[in-house]
Amino acid sequence: MSEKTKVLIIGSGPAGYTAAIYAARAGLKPVLFTGGQPGGQLTTTNDVENFPGYPEGINGPQMMIDLQKQAERFGTVINYGLVTGVDFSGYPHKVTVDENRTVEAEAVIIATGASAKYLGLPSEEKYANRGVSACAVCDGYFYRGKEVAVVGAGDSAAEESTYLSKLCTKVHLIVRREEMRASKIMQQRVLNTPNIEIHWNSETEEVLGDDQGVNGVRVRNNKTGEKKVIPIQGFFLAIGHKPNTDIFKGQLDMDEAGYLKVTPGSTHTNVEGVFAVGDVADKVYRQAVTAAGSGCMGALDAEKFLAAREMEMAHS
User: Fold this and answer.
1) Looking at the 3D structure of the chain, how many domains does it have?
2) Catalytic residue among 138, 279, 282, 301
3) Residue 45 pLDDT > 80, yes or no?
4) Which domain covers residue 82, as residue numbers?
């Protein structure tokens, strides 16, 4: 026996909760499943200082609790559960939760987000929020006047290094090969920035630190095997993000990196009644405020879709 709902929201970051607030206030009684990381990427961020309306900044997990309360206040039903499968081949859409619970929904808003890729070193986890970050735009401000390292060789690594070079005394860019993958113009920017030092053919072995947080990084030269310690206070990962879209493979259109494709200027996917919001469909901006904005768009698109369907049903 499957449960039925009008609007189902998958994911609980700024995009999912904002979609819930708008859908609930429109009287659509949305049901939201939090996913494996309730609150999403922001729960791994201590201080959010760039979200409008918080002049003193706000703690990431607290902000997610606030958003959840706001969504619940207007009647969103929030369930802790992981969506493990979807079937968008018929209508209504079918979603499987925790592998054994089926929910049928007239409209589905996907807000499953993306996850930053890490190197997989135990020290990254140990110093998360204490010098290790996967977002220079979010956290760079805390490292003003300090030395930092960025690991990566693509456009995002080039962008993050250039961004940090304006705030930090020195940026060490750790590149695995003897060339960068970044576009020519981005590479030029990095090479023309005097306080960025590139460490070619370098593999990060370990992030070093003490009770105060990160104080260095040990790198090994791939060619010579030589090891050295670079003294730094901040270690930034810029090796890409992976959108959380595995369960939608074969059901929804996505780009080569796995981001869901939406009709430009909207949140419509290629399946009618299925909408994608937040970082799951955004590889460009990836900010809390843009995710929240697209969550609002998703709820409005879903509301319009459901109203049009009701009109059709009434006339048929």
Assistant:
1) 2
2) 138
3) no
4) 3-115+241-315
Over residues 130-178, the pLDDT tens digits come to 999 998 988 999 999 999 999 999 988 999 999 999 999 999 999 999 9
157 shares its domain with 208: yes
Catalytic residue, from 47, 87, 98, 139: name it.
Answer: 139
Convert the chain into a string of H (helix), E (strand) and C (coil): CCEEEEEEEECCCHHHHHHHHHHHHCCCCCEEECCCCCCHHHHHCCEECCCCCCCCCEEHHHHHHHHHHHHHHCCCEEECCCEEEEECCCCCEEEEECCCEEEEEEEEEECCCEEECCCCCHHHHHCECCCEECCHHHHHHHHCCCEEEEECCCHHHHHHHHHHHCCCCEEEEECCCCCCCCCHHHHHHHHCCCCEEEECCEEEEEEEEECCEEEEEEEEECCCCCEEEECCCEEEECCCEEECCHHHCCCCCECCCCCECCCCCCCECCCCCEEECHHHCCCCCCCHHHHHHHHHHHHHHHHHHHHHHHHHHHHC
Based on the domain organization, do 122 and 69 belong to the same domain? Answer: no
| 139 in active site | yes
Residues 26-36: b if buried by 16+ CB within 10 A, e if exposed: bebebbbbbbe
Q: Indicate if 296 belongs to the active site.
A: no
Same-domain check for residues 108 and 177 = no
- What is the structure's pLDDT at 1? 59
Count CB neighbours of 220 within 10 A. Answer: 16
Q: Cα–Cα distance between 198 and 176 in angstroms, integer?
A: 10
Catalytic-labelled residue, pool 135, 279, 282, 301: 135
